[in-house]
Design a protein that fits this description.
With 251 residues, the protein is of the alpha/beta class. Helices cover 42% and strands 15% of the residues. Strands 3-2-1-4-5-6-7 form a 7-stranded parallel sheet, sandwiched between helices.
């Protein structure tokens, strides 16, 4: 894969031991990028993702870190620098999904979900962007979600975090546009994923409300991230790309 479109680039993808993050890691590895797989506590899942990348001819390392903290984010970016010499792509995918009625939600529940979403973006970008500035090239991709556009009960903490991530992405895009760094948000719709119990059960009947008649596949979300990381996508920045089967028509 040394001759891929992203050969020589290094991508750090948070929450990449499963679901959209893992699919993104595999997609970028297929284009030749070095991959840093990240999770919080499941070393076995992170190592399995690394082995899958290596089996396809790619290069990857795993690093467990809580990226909602500065120490965790710094350690993750340092692991990328130690292994590969720097960071060119950051995919801010880590999130904590919760489901609780607003009047039953305590502030700790709210902050835990919001902090994982937005604090991770802040800390990761502060640690990674200096490497991008040095290289004169970089890609920041955040992962949003359709829920905050259309509303959803019992998930005010999720909606708040995902709305904030769009504003954060706009700020990064504006501040670093002249320095070769782009920032965009990929906003998935209903997607077939492995969900923790705290996130609530998925509802296949939701697909009845999606114009294309089905839920999305993680590979479809990853394909959009992959496109935005390409050298040819350098004129796209500050955008939210909706990948939701027509559930929401972004404007």
């Amino acid at each position: 894969m040394s001759n891929g479109t992203l050969a020589g680039k290094t991508a750090v993808i948070t929450g990449s031991s499963r679901n959209i993050g893992k699919a993104t890691a595999l997609a970028l590895a297929a284009d030749g990028a070095n991959i840093v797989v990240n999770g919080v506590q499941d070393q076995e899942a992170a190592d399995a993702a690394v082995k899958e990348i290596e089996a396809m001819g790619g290069t990857a390392v795993a690093k467990l870190a809580d990226v909602s903290t500065k120490a965790g984010s710094d350690a993750l970016i340092q692991a990328a620098a130690d292994a590969f010499g720097g960071v060119d792509i950051v995919v801010v995918n880590a999130s904590t999904r919760g489901q609780k009625a607003f009047l039953e939600m305590d502030h700790e529940d709210f902050r835990r979900v919001v902090d994982t979403t937005i604090d991770s973006a802040f800390h990761l970008c502060q640690a990674a962007i200096p490497y991008m500035l040095e290289a004169g090239w970089g890609r920041v991709i955040t992962i949003g979600g359709v829920s905050w556009y259309i509303g959803m009960p019992n998930r005010i903490h999720n909606l708040t975090g995902k709305s904030a991530i769009v504003g954060f992405t706009h700020g990064i895009a504006a501040e670093f546009a002249t320095q070769g760094i782009t920032a965009n948000c990929v906003s998935p719709g209903a997607t077939e994923t492995v969900r923790p119990a705290s996130a609530g059960a998925g509802n296949p009947r939701n697909a009845m409300n999606i114009p294309v008649g089905r839920q999305g596949d993680v590979k479809e979300m990853a394909a959009t991230v992959r496109f935005l990381c390409q050298p040819e996508a350098g004129y796209i920045t500050g955008q939210t790309i909706h990948v939701n089967g027509g559930l929401f028509y972004g404007t």
